[in-house]
Specification:
With 132 residues, the protein is mainly beta. The protein has a single domain, classed as Sandwich (Tumour Suppressor Smad4), CATH 2.60.200. It has one helix and eleven strands. The protein has a five-stranded mixed sheet with strand order 7-6-3-9-10, with no helix packed on it.
Length: 132
């Protein structure tokens, strides 16, 4: 993050259009990403994409923000913008890398959406009952 240069981005959802000055935009579809980082208020079954954008800051300001990102308790921090939606588009004037589930995966402009029931999961039945 220290090497990231600030850029302007626009995050568009069905209900909002947010313009940010940022050093990183992260999009996640569950509570954990990138080696143990946490997306605040995210759940695998909430059918939402969770996004945070880090505002430009000095290197010494990053340490408390990184601690809060690791814990998943960053929503009320003044250097973090937070959004959740089923669908979003990330736009910039020039292409910029985007972190998706903790990995640099794609560049802007990019669209993300939740595909409900896109994966079928088979699991053994859960045993219920008391102790024997």
């Amino acid at each position: 993050m220290r090497r990231n240069r600030p850029f302007r981005a626009e995050i568009v959802t069905r209900s909002a259009r947010v313009k940010v000055s940022t050093i990183e935009v992260a999009v996640g579809n569950g509570p954990r990403y990138g080696g143990g980082m946490r997306m605040q208020d995210a759940a695998l079954d909430d059918h939402l994409l969770h996004v945070y954008s880090l505002r430009p800051m000095r290197v010494r300001e990053m340490i408390p923000v990184l601690v809060r990102l690791r814990r998943g308790s960053y929503a009320d921090h003044d250097k973090v913008d937070v959004l959740a939606a089923e669908w979003l588009e990330l736009r910039t004037s020039r292409p910029h890398w985007i972190t998706v589930d903790g990995e640099l995966r794609t560049r802007t402009p990019a669209q993300f959406r939740v595909l409900r029931a896109a994966l079928q999961v088979l699991a053994p039945p859960v045993e219920t009952g008391g102790e024997e």
